[in-house]
Write a structure and sequence with these properties.
Length: 295
């Protein structure tokens, strides 16, 4: 069984269309080569239309069997694994930022959409009529992306909105199964999600997930369940893992950037620089400034 760990990169090998600013891409599953290194994976949502193949989407302690055709929605804060059970799938996918649909005052908010909302059901199985309709939309989007039309992005936004609203009208398929080792999977996904927050690449971007309850919410499990699973599998607490990763990133930023301590504190999710100073000194014995000067 071939397994694809999804961290907001495209699992296909396809040529893709990139607009500047990097807000949208569309690709056909299974074509040639696809590289997505030029965008910030934490900012992107993904919509996939799977036309053929059988697969399994796993996240936290539940999963969904996908028998094509299906429409799949994933958001940038939930890591997951997608296992292909038989042949390579076919279809389309697009990745887009929230700002792509907010262009010129549009009001669509992907984070609040029921399709992408944490704890929602990301899989929509399709009948033949829905499949034909959605496939035609993806084809139109790709044609527009390849065109020279000056206002093609406006056309694409309208087509993406049609996909979103078509899905909202559907009821998600409920074909859950319990993974045989739920604790192991929860712990693995927590560690993946933790690592996904880094590296911090701008002092203006604060970490979105700061404590165990934030990670539990984004993995759709109770915080006590998350803590128990991580402790069972790793022998360490969720908070200990978070603190260690924060400390590693803090040291790296102090050593390799010229950001002020206040900027570093903000980027790592500390409301006040004094909180960061206390955290750093507690775990290293020195203040951030003393650590920086000693390098």
């Amino acid at each position: 069984m071939e397994q694809f760990e999804i961290v907001q990169r495209a699992e296909s090998r396809a040529p893709d269309i990139l607009f500047k600013p990097a807000q949208f891409r569309i690709s056909v599953v299974g074509e040639d080569q696809c590289t997505l290194a030029s965008y910030n994976r934490r900012d992107f949502y993904k919509i996939s239309l799977i036309l053929t193949g059988r697969s399994r989407l796993l996240y936290a302690n539940r999963g969904i069997e996908i028998v094509a055709p299906a429409l799949v929605f994933t958001n940038p804060l939930i890591p997951y694994s997608w296992e292909m059970l038989h042949e390579e799938p076919s279809g389309y996918f697009c990745i887009l930022s929230d700002s792509f649909l907010h262009h010129n005052g549009r009001t669509e908010n992907l984070e609040e959409s029921p399709l992408f909302k944490v704890g929602g059901d990301p899989i929509y199985h399709l009948n033949s009529e829905q499949t034909a309709y959605l496939e035609s939309i993806f084809q139109r989007i790709k044609q527009e992306a390849d065109s020279e039309y000056v206002f093609k992005l406006d056309v694409i936004r309208n087509q993406v909105s049609l996909i979103i609203h078509e899905a909202i009208k559907m009821q998600p398929a409920l074909a859950y199964f319990t993974h045989t080792n739920a604790s192991s999977r929860i712990a693995k996904l927590f560690l993946t999600l933790l690592e996904k927050q880094f590296p911090v690449d701008s002092p203006e971007n604060m970490l979105k997930l700061k404590k165990a309850s934030d990670y539990a919410e984004n993995l759709s499990v109770h915080v006590n369940h998350l803590n128990a699973a991580v402790q069972e599998v790793t022998g360490r607490s969720t908070t200990a893992h978070i603190n260690d990763r924060l400390l590693t990133e803090a040291k790296s930023l102090l050593q390799y950037t010229t950001w002020s301590v206040a900027d570093i504190a903000f980027s790592l999710g500390f409301e006040y620089a004094s909180y960061f100073n206390n955290f750093f000194k507690k775990h290293t014995g020195n203040t951030p400034l003393v650590f920086r000067k000693s390098l």
